[in-house]
Design goal:
14 helices; six-stranded mixed β-sheet; alpha+beta
């Protein structure tokens, strides 16, 4: 077996184990159980001289950090940051059991295959290969597999930065997600996530008057009012904003000038999204140009024969960089209109959007390595609609990017639908590419 084939096989088996560990994070303190994958990775990384540290934020919520120290304190430190938790999965909509880690025709299926066990695995394999080869760089390489990314990082990166900052102190950070090739007339474009939207979740409580379900005429039913609130939130579109990172993304695609103009015009971008044939791309266009309000959870009522007097609506608010909490409150008032006076609003979480510089020595190194592995490719900056652990570092002034490398096996239009969706999967070739990326990047950037 060729060396690269053996490497890829190693990645596949480790990824399958992490998927089967089922470190499902539902947002509660007792979920996650990332200790399973911390144990797996610690056992895998042992035997090649790597020093490893475990950090426990709560029972079962364990993060693992390892490093290859550099020779020169003046050289940069690079953190490759993966997470081991995954979101829940209801297998009824899947073609394969989401936690069986089936391999079918060169594709690994399972929850976390994209978000982001594929990268966590390849980072670990690349680190072990470097250590086994006696890699002694000028700069320092840190590889971390953290808990709780899927629920604000309280038991993961936030805990580490608050209690053990030296363990992950770095000059540059790479985490999820990017590197899915987008075809263009001048060759494949490889998006690098340089920023992401903020999280401004809101809890809406709708009040009514309890009564007997057999006497609904004229009743003050909180669920009926809540239904109207949900409809207003779903129909609302905040004013579009065209950020420089979005403009650069679109311009790099080399589209018809009329389409480029529409996608970068705040007055026309929403209509342009509606023209697209791909639902996944349409959602990305909308998300990258608007602060979004998505009513995702409703709780209310006690029994079928009781008119409810209280309904709770959980709204996932994702803010463009620069949008403040007060701006979100104004958008909600605009969206709700008259029913706003019947609604109590609270803010369980708020974190601003973040953007890193688009031109740095790390970006240049990524471009060199990616061009060698994907001939003819060019990097293009992108904004992530969702949140990642990168934001914690950007808030501290540390440049943080999302990247990886993917083959063309899975169409780029399908990736937006797999994050937190059904039929999450990654092809074996992409796993090999990402592993080579981290290994060569460490040699190029850290010396």
């Amino acid at each position: 077996m060729r060396t690269e084939d053996a490497m890829t096989a190693e990645v596949v088996e480790l990824l399958r184990t992490l998927i089967r560990n089922a470190c499902v994070n539902d947002g509660t303190d007792a979920s996650g159980h990332e200790i399973r994958s911390a144990d797996t990775l610690e056992a895998y990384l042992s035997g090649v001289g790597l020093a490893m540290e475990r950090y426990t934020a709560a029972p079962g919520r364990v993060s693992l950090v390892t490093r290859i120290d550099g020779r020169d304190r003046r050289a940069p430190t690079l953190l490759l940051l993966g997470h081991t938790d995954v979101v829940p999965a209801d297998g009824r909509g899947w073609r394969h059991d989401p936690f069986a880690a089936d391999v079918d025709d060169g594709v690994v299926w399972g929850r976390g295959a994209i978000d982001m066990l594929n990268l966590t695995t390849t980072m670990a394999v690349a680190c072990r290969r470097l250590a086994a080869g006696a890699f002694r760089p000028a700069g320092t390489l840190i590889v971390a597999a953290v808990a709780d990314e899927e629920a604000n990082g309280t038991h993961g990166v936030a805990h580490l930065l608050d209690r053990h900052a030296d363990a992950i102190r770095a000059d540059y950070v790479i985490t999820e997600a990017g590197g899915v090739p987008v075809p263009s007339r001048e060759g494949p474009l490889l998006p690098v996530t340089v920023g992401e939207k903020g999280v401004g979740w809101r809890r809406l409580v709708v009040r009514g008057t309890a009564g007997h379900g057999a006497l609904p005429f004229g009743a003050d039913n909180a669920l009926v009012t809540a239904a109207a609130v949900v409809q207003r939130l779903a129909a609302y579109h905040s004013p579009a904003r065209i950020l420089d990172v979005w403009r650069r993304t679109v311009e790099a695609l080399g589209l018809d000038p009329a389409i480029t103009a529409a996608l970068t015009d705040p007055e026309r971008v929403l209509d342009a999204a509606r023209w697209l044939d791909s639902p996944g791309l349409a959602r990305v266009v909308h998300a990258c140009t608007h602060t979004t309000l998505s009513p995702n959870v409703v709780r209310g009522g006690t029994n079928v024969n009781v008119i409810p007097d209280r309904v709770v609506i959980e709204v996932d608010v994702r803010t463009l960089p620069g949008v403040k909490a007060a701006d979100v409150d104004a958008m909600l008032a605009d969206a709700l209109g008259d029913p706003a006076e019947r609604v109590e609003i609270s803010a369980p979480a708020f974190g601003e959007g973040s953007i890193s510089p688009m031109e740095t020595p790390l970006r240049d190194a990524l471009a060199r390595v990616a061009a060698a592995l994907v001939p003819g490719s060019r990097l293009v900056p992108q904004l992530a609609p969702g949140a990642t652990d990168a934001r914690h570092f950007r808030w501290c002034g540390v440049p943080a990017y999302g990247f990886g490398l993917h083959s063309r096996r899975i169409p780029y239009t399908e990736y937006p639908l797999m994050f937190h969706g059904d039929n999450e999967r990654i092809d074996v070739e992409s796993l090999g590419l990402s592993c080579l990326l981290w290994e060569r990047l460490a040699r190029d950037f850290l010396g």
